[in-house]
Amino acid sequence: MYEETPRVELTPAATDLLRRLRATHGPLMFHQSGGCCDGSAPMCYPEGEFRTGGSDVLLAELQVDGVPEPVTFWMSRSQYEVWSHTRLIVDVVAGRGSGFSLEAPEGVRFLTRSRVVGA
Q: The whole model's pTM is what?
């Protein structure tokens, strides 16, 4: 089934950053856990470094120009239940996020914005 509105999309800034991170770290993935503080932001890891399981939902396999493989976007099932009616827009803002996410040394952090599906 073709989904007209993507569940997850990237801003141009996020796309540029992912290309740079891919060149340094290899294949990438996102996970958004819904925990407190930085846990509610999308964390970028080398693909497979964050172990996913039955408590996670694969929302997208993002195609990024200049990146040969899809960048997977996972979300904890409990957070997905709250956000299931939205389209997630991954952006980049200045500031330091989690030390676990690959962009932390860059002086920027990924941020999820949302828009109600159909709006």
A: 0.88
